[in-house]
Amino acid sequence: MQAIEPIRITAGNFAAYGRYYNLRGEDGARLADGRTFVSRQRISGEPLKIGATAVAGGPFVSSKMERHTLSEELLICGDDEMVLTVADSDPEGAPRSRDVRAFIMRPGDAVVLGRGIWHDANHGLHWDTTYFFLIPQRDFVASEVKWTEIVPEAVPVRWETGERGEPEAAAPESGEPQAAVPETQTRPGAPEADRLLNGADGTPFLTYGRLVRVLEGPGLAGDTGWRSWLEEAPALTEGCYLGVGFPEDDSRDGARGCGRTAISRDSAAECGRDGARQILCACGAVKLTVMLRGRPESVYTVRLSQGDYALLEENVCYKVLREPGTPGYYYILSPKGLM
């Protein structure tokens, strides 16, 4: 099979496979801690499970795919650009080589795959990466997940590389903020000493919600360089709006770290919307400070690494800052809208 080359995803070229969302569009709002972009419309109105997948980077061969005939699947680009490989071979019993297409997604991109669309695990464009996915609770059943070989043969996915053997990065669209590109490959995890900045007195994060270190727990391993984790129960019970935040670093105004000063300055802390739980998904490294609404003494700060996410309860206010010199940013999921 001749190799195919991934193309930059757009709403037009992806329309046959599902819905594409560019979260860095016209809905951007400048906040005190950076810039946040939100979807214009509700992404999904159903109870959703959340999961994350860690994948290898670089050119690859797509040999197997899965599909969900009863449900859609939301895929959110993680800490770096990634390649999404799909095939519209329905009602065939397997994905066909001639139907395979590959799309490049970048930070701030999200797609909702249509029912019955075959898809491989995503792959990092530049290097290993992590991305997030959400699946409706109502329709999804484990028996749907059946990896099927591409027929009549596997499809190589290749692209041109730069002088150092790294993929050439596409030029950014004018006027849109970009997540910084790290100089070296991002590695999952971080020493626990660097994870807990405040709250080391034994105050549990359960006071504010639940913190999930997905890359440190058991997951389902695939045979093409990926590993996935999935919540057992719906993380959002009313569907979601989706946003992405590109925060300023924590050296602004001379303040180091988050803590009480950071969450209170400029009245910039965000709080839960009308009794709604929110999820914050970390890409790269960020510092999350949380505080119970109306209780300034209840401050807790934690360092999140790529793939980590926090399920914040309705009475929790939060502040997110990026560590100086890092490319960290985050996604926000909320059933009540973000702004």
What does this structure look like?
Helices cover 4% and strands 36% of the residues. With 339 residues, the protein is mainly beta. The strands form six sheets. Strands 2-11-8-14-5-19-18 form a seven-stranded antiparallel sheet, with no helix packed on it. The protein has a seven-stranded antiparallel sheet with strand order 3-4-20-27-22-25-17, with no helix packed on it. The radius of gyration is 20 Å and the shape is globular.
Total number of β-strand segments? 27
Task: Output mean pLDDT.
Answer: 77
The low-confidence parts are 162-201, 253-268
Largest sheet, spatial ordering of strands = 2-11-8-14-5-19-18
- Tally of DSSP helical segments: 3
The proportion of residues in beta strands is: 35-45%
Report the principal-axis shape.
Answer: globular
Taken in chain order, the helices and strands follow as: EHEEEEEEEEEEEEEEEHEEEEHEEEEEEE
Calculate Rg over CA atoms.
20 Å
| First-to-last CA distance | 48 Å
The largest pleated sheet is described as: 7 strands, antiparallel
Helix/strand/pairing category: mainly beta
